Amino acid sequence: MLFKQQALLRQKLLVLGSLAIGSVLYLVARVGTLDRLQPTCPIEGRLTDPDQIPLRTLQFKRGLLRKLCKGNASREQTHRQSLVQQLPRAIIIGVRKGGTRALLEMLNLHPAVVKASQEIHFFDDDENYARGIEWYRGEMPFSFPHQITIEKSPAYFITEEVPERIFKMNSSIKLLVTVREPTTRAVSDYTQVLEGKERKNKTYHKFEKLAINTNTCEVNTKYKAVQTSIYTKHLERWLKYFPVEQFHVVDGDRLITDPLPELQMVERFLNLPARIGQYNLYFNATRGFYCLRFNIVFNKCLAGSKGRIHPEVDPSVVTKLQRFFHPFNQKFYQITGRTFNWP
Ligand code: A3P
């Protein structure tokens, strides 16, 4: 009898436990999919003032959507004001390894921002570009009309044809460039390539061998990781199409150590109400980086491929590179009006 009661109790506990775990998993799964909103629900033009939007938690986004779905919008309103795929009003054009992913994910904390999750490579890839602007729009996430879509493709910054192509799409688009101290960025760039080679069991040169021309002992300006870090050279190409006011430079080093002030500057640049707060960012000691908090249940850190350990570089090579970049950096500060403490 006692044995039977115990078995019954165990069974009940098991059911209750499964229910609890199931509920938690369900909640996490629901919250995790919230920004993949489907274009099934009409909206009633109630979202025109971004200042009216409280800080987005992902639940808020879904809750709002449901509320609006229950509304009594007419069929005509339904068609007129559905969720839409909008062309980006701002693009993170680079710089590779400057913290472009962190910037995009962090901006996506804002209720009025919707991100294109993947790098689209529309303007730098001739094949994609030939597919036309409606193909590009089709790659964009669904959003409410008052929201702005942002995409990031760091190759844009260094690809010759891109400024003109973006200009043709929207000459008043806002352009975000996140930069890091150029030598650190070059080493980060090298580390990414090295990891790719190692994954394929291939050997690769040391950074020093690539960055320094062994014949002249000078900086190898043909090395792509060096070229990409000459920010002013690329920016000058962009300035043939866009005025400097349309660019905002983000300090990618500060984005690592203290992201909030950088994000607040971007909010202002994009004319968005200040909605990203300290609550949304927390330092994860294990990762050694800030991670994102959307709400009480849903947090996320960037993938492990962000924040690699860099190889040690010969200090004399570091100094040589820093000296090489110095005059270009000065010019970059002068043009952009943003000065960094780079050596
Ligand atoms: P490292 O891997 O050299 O550390 P990108 O997204 O443009 O490829 O940039 C990657 C860099 O973003 C990483 O370079 C990392 O330092 C930086 N970063 C900035 N904020 C980060 C964050 N919160 N989590 C992870 N990496 C971050």
Automatic annotation (TrEMBL):
- Which residues does the Swiss-Prot or TrEMBL record annotate as the active site? K97
InterPro entries linked to this entry: NST/OST (IPR037359), P-loop_NTPase (IPR027417), Sulfotransferase_dom (IPR000863)
* Residue ranges annotated for the Sulfotransferase domain, each copy included: 88-332
Q: Can you say what this protein is called?
A: Sulfotransferase
Q: Which GO terms describe its cellular component?
A: Golgi membrane
TM region(s), chain numbering: 12-29
Q: Name one GO molecular function term.
A: [heparan sulfate]-glucosamine 3-sulfotransferase activity
UniProt topology in membrane: Single-pass type II membrane protein
